[in-house]
Amino acid sequence: MKTIKILIADDQTLMRDGLKTIIELEDDMEVVGTAENGLQAYEMTGKLCPDVVLMDIRMPVMDGVESTRIIKKDFPSAVVIMLTTFDDEEYIVQALQFGANGYLLKDIQGNKLIDAVRDSSKGNMLIPANIATKLAAKLSQIPIEYRRQEQNILCDLSEREINIARLMVKGYTNKQISAALFISEGTAKNYISMIYSKIGISDRTKAVIYLRKCI
């Protein structure tokens, strides 16, 4: 069983220690480090190579949004889950634009947090319903002419690519897509690469956000 390596970034000692205690009760998880601010989180990601970074939004020195931006730029394989007590749509949109893989409120139950970490490590995107609603409202403010341009992307995708794009939007991993469409995982990856090429986006999270507006 593969151990999921986790880095916790939060400026509150109680929150860091609490998350560490909850996570280390799991046999398949290990907290490899804790950071007090976004800059430390970035530096420790480079040194410790965590699979998942639990990232607070509001921290001194460097906030979680900026830390996410540079982490995903320099260490794109790291999964970053945003943690906050503020369901502010501006933070949500910015973090997701920078490549965050999910967004959870700090009052989430411990068992649901553990499930979320496992899901995110498999490539699933995490957005709670209330946050997804805010995000959808924000995206709906985009001018109509731009939304029409985005919808035209469907004309460039094949029927199979559209089916795969719909599964991506639902949060399916490559393995789940291959099983659902009875194709090999390698074939699924090839189709997804073609989709990336056609929409001009190579980051999965950003691609899912874009495709959600088109499909």
Structure overview:
The protein is an alpha/beta fold and 215 residues long. The protein folds into 2 domains: 4-128, Response regulator (Rossmann fold, 3-Layer(aba) Sandwich); 142-214, Winged helix-like DNA-binding domain superfamily/Winged helix DNA-binding domain (Arc Repressor Mutant, subunit A). It is 55% helix and 13% strand. The chain has 11 helices and 5 strands. The protein has helices spanning 13-23, 38-48, 64-74, 89-97, 110-121, 129-139, 144-151, 159-169, 174-181, 185-199, 204-214; strands at 4-9, 29-35, 52-56, 79-84, 102-105. Strands 2-1-3-4-5 form a 5-stranded parallel beta sheet, with helices on both faces. Helix 1 links the parallel strand 1 and strand 2 (29-35). Helix 9 (174-181) packs across helix 10. The longest helix has 15 residues, at 185-199. The chain is globular and about 50 Å long. The N and C termini lie far apart (37 Å). 31% of the residues are buried. Mean pLDDT is 85; it is low at 144-150.
Instruction: Please name the CATH topology of the largest domain.
Output: Rossmann fold
| Element-level helix/strand string | EHEHEHEHEHHHHHHH
Largest sheet: 5 strands, parallel
Number of domains: 2
**What would you call the shape?**
globular
What's the tally of helices?
11
According to CATH, what is the class of the largest domain? Alpha Beta
CATH superfamily of the largest domain: Response regulator
Structural class call reads alpha/beta
Radius of gyration (Å) = 18 Å
Unreliable stretches (pLDDT < 50, length at least 5) are 144-150
* CATH architecture descriptor of the largest domain: 3-Layer(aba) Sandwich
The residue-averaged pLDDT reads: 85
Total strands: the figure is 5
Q: Order of strands in the sheet with the most strands?
A: 2-1-3-4-5
Distance between the termini: 37 Å
Strand content: 5-15%
- Fraction in helix: 40-55%
